[in-house]
Fold this sequence. Notes:
5-stranded antiparallel β-sheet; alpha+beta; 12% strand; 2 domains; 11 helices
Amino acid sequence: MTVYLPGGRVITLDAPLGGGAEGKIFRLAETPDLCAKVYLDPERYTTERLVAMMAAAPSRWRGDHGEHMHLAWPREVLEDRNGQTRGFLMPLVEGAPLTHLFDPRKRLTAVDTPTWRLVVTVAARVARLLAMLHDAGVVMGDLSPTNVVLSRTGHVTLVDCDTVQFTDAKTGEVHRCTKLTPEYAAPELSSGQAVELRPSQDDFGLAILVCQLLMEGEHPFEGVPADATAPEGTAADNIRLQNNRILFPERFTALADGMPLNVLPPRVLELARACFGEGHRDPAARPSASDWAETLDQVGFQLMGCRHNENHTYHRTLGSCLWCARRDAGHGDHFPALGVPDVVALPIPASLPAARTVPWPRPPVSPAPQSPPQPTYPAPAATPAPPVKKGTELPEWATTVAAIVAAIVVLVIISAIVSALL
Ligand SMILES: Nc1ncnc2c1ncn2[C@@H]1O[C@H](COP(=O)(O)OP(=O)(O)O)[C@@H](O)[C@H]1O
Ligand SMILES: [Mg+2]
């Protein structure tokens, strides 16, 4: 398919990068740092919305890192040959979906330092990013871990920004968000009606995401019901019914390898309880994104390092290493130390970078220079002595006598010459 910039320039789409319910994302043939989102159902999208978004470009909105791009915000509208909006160009973000942090094996390949400390830092960054959007009058709406791209260093970028709720600065018109991910949607949105969102709706999804990150991917509203006769509800059903393992763990069947609630630092647990308890009914009672960011930053200063494994970190209130205890209980080492192969109870994925799987000591990167083969026979002399003719060789004493005789002869001659002259 051919798409065009509004001026008529052709944009050549290259390999697909991903796709969701709304559109497909493609690399561009000529421009490596941009990509295109092409809508599946372009009728629903207006140029007006995208143009208003581009006018509200977030260049002055800052995240946690001055040089990191935090939002894949639309840059240019893309049209078909009839001038109908088909999608847009945006910055290309390299990285893995945030869901890779939920899984110990995927985490090993997704980030450079796969530790629980990094997980806490990432959670804080997501919270700060949302707080920044809320300050700018934007509500993410479709908050989900697949809409957050994670860099190898643990920095985060929001994608799917074209569906956010924002206000057109010129007209004052509110452009609404029309898409939600039910597993992260606040209970009042489960009716599916497009309503004007408030930041507190993002805050509900954020609380779920933070718990899920800190609890090894366990969604607080998912699980097998304790009542064996009850049907297993979806996360959205459980959100509506307030079935969550933070406040009501007894409503779910406890799994042998389930994460214990005390993995959550006390203040985090407090915020989660406020959000899923009182905040379930009253959006105003939910901790804000900046509350979460502040709390998670503080938690980052309260972590302990394990004596046995540098990749194990846990909150200081636990007293001993939770990850060692879980490994010893047979649940695998979720944060295996590098270079210590016997701590990994989980199967190592084939895609693990070579540097993380090679046994210690590592083989040299380039082959060591080979020493020349040793000869198995006596080496010939470098410069052989000239052959001595047989029969010409004199004994040492004869040489000495000849030298003395020669010296006497010379002395006799000299004395004869001297006496003749006198
Ligand atoms: N700017 C981008 N750079 C790199 N990958 C992206 C970008 N935008 C989206 N993606 C990838 O494509 C997937 C789908 O894009 P998204 O905009 O979320 O589509 P949908 O609206 O259909 O959910 C994302 O989950 C992400 O993996
Ligand atoms: Mg998406």
